[in-house]
Amino acid sequence: MKDVEEKIMPGVTHWQHPRFHAYFPSGNSYPSLLADMLSDAIGCIGFSWAASPSCTELETIVLDWLGKAIGLPEKFLMYPSTKATVPNDIDINFEDYKTPASQTQSLGGGVIQSSASECIFVCMLSARAQAISKLKKIHPFVDEGVLLSKLMAYCSKEAHSCVEKAAMMAFVRLKILEPDDKNSLRGATLRQVMQQDETMGYIPFFVSTTLGTTSCCSFDNLAEIGPVAKEFDVWLHVDGAYAGSSFICPEFRPFMNGIEYADSFNVNVNKWMLTAFDSSCLWVADRYKLTSALVVDPLYLQHGHEGAIDYRHWGIPLSRRFRSLKLWFVIRTYGLSGLQKYIRRHCELAKLFEAKVRRDPRFEISNDVRLGLVCFRLKGDGNIVTTDQNNRKLLEDINASGRLHMVPASVNDKYVIRFCVTAQNANENDIDIAWKIIQEFASTIVAESIK
Ligand code: PLP
Q1: Strand ranges inside 191-272, DSSP E
Q2: Above 0.90 for ipTM, yes or no?
Q3: What is the CATH number of domain 335-450?
C-alpha cells in the first residue's frame, strides 16, 4: 500500500472527490464495491446459462426490476407479468421467475454490457443484419456488399461520438443531423432527410437518439421521432447513458415520452446509480432480433438446457463477469426510495448551482438545467472570439489549480463550462465551495481583460 500511495495515487484523477465536477458521475458505493469483490472471488465466467446459472438468471431478474423501476414499456421486460417490483426492502421472491425465459410470452429482455458504446454498436449491428436480410429477400441476387453500401444510419449532432464510432466499425453510412435551438432532434428534420435519402437510393435502417446528451443534457424529441422511425421501418435506439437513471423518479419520466416506439434502450447505471463501472444496461424489445447478428454456436459452448438464456449471444465478448451482483446489492441496500433520494438530491444541487450563476451578472447559463448538469459561461462583451478565449482561460486556470475539476463543451457553437454534480454524498457546502472558486478565478480573468 505504501507503493500504491507513493507511486499510483499521485497519478490518479479523483473521480470520487467532492471537487470533481467533470464529465458525468462515475457511480460507486460501498455495496457496489463489496459485490464486485464477491464477484471476483466467485470468479465465474457466465457466458452461457450452464456456465453459471445464477450469473445469468440474476442478470435477467435485476434488469427486469430496473426496467420496471425506470418505467420502461412491458415489451422490454422478460417477465412482464411478475408481480415483483423493485424492492424497498429485502423481501424478494425468486419464485416469480421460475418459468424458463423461452416459455414467457415476452420477446424482450435486458442485458448488462461494458459500455454504452458497446450497447449502441451491437444494436447497430443487429439493425444492419435485419436490414440486409430484408433486402436479400427483395434482391436475392444482389451482393451483400452492394446492399451494405446503401444503408444509412442517423443521429443528432448532439449524439455521443460513440455513435459515429459504431457506424465506422459497422461500415455503414451515418448522417449527423442538426437539432433545434434547444439541442433536441426533431421528427420533421429526420423525416425530411430520410425522404431525400430514399429518393437518392439510400436505405434508412437505424436511428440513434439521446435522452440526456453529453454536452448539455438535452433530450431528443422521441414522441416525434418514434412515428417517423416506424413509418420508415428503421430500428430506433434510445441512449439514456446518463439521464436514464433519473427515470426511476416519476417526475422525470416525461423526458422519455415516446419510449414505446423504441427497439432498444440503454442506461449506464455505472454513471448515476451508485453502481461501479462496468455496468451499462441494455433492453431490447425483441431479443431474437438482437441475437440474430451475434450468434455462433461451436460444440464446446453448447449445453442441453434448451431455451435458457445464453448471454454470449447478446454482445461481443464471450466471457462475462458476474456484474449483476453489484446492481442487486445496490438495489437491495438502498431500495427504490433510496436511489430516488440520491438522484433528486443531485438535481436539487444542480438547481442551487444554477441559481448562484444566474445571480452573478458576469455569467450566463447555456442549457436548460433539468437534471444534474449545468452549462455556464462568462458573458463577455458580445465578441464571441474573446468570450470563448476568456472561458477557455477560466477553465484552464481552474483545472491547473487542482482545486476543482470541470470540462468544457460546445453548446450552440459556443465554448461552455460543464458543471456536473457527481459526488455520491454531494451537499450544499460543496456547491458553495465550487462556486466561490469559480468566482475567484473569474474575477482575475475579468480584471485582466479590462486592462
Ligand atoms: N452516451 C452518452 C449520452 C454519454 O454521455 C456517454 C459517455 O459519457 C456515452 C454514450 C458513452 O459511454 P461509454 O463510456 O459507456 O461507452
Answers
A1: 203-210, 235-239, 264-268
A2: yes
A3: 3.90.1150.10
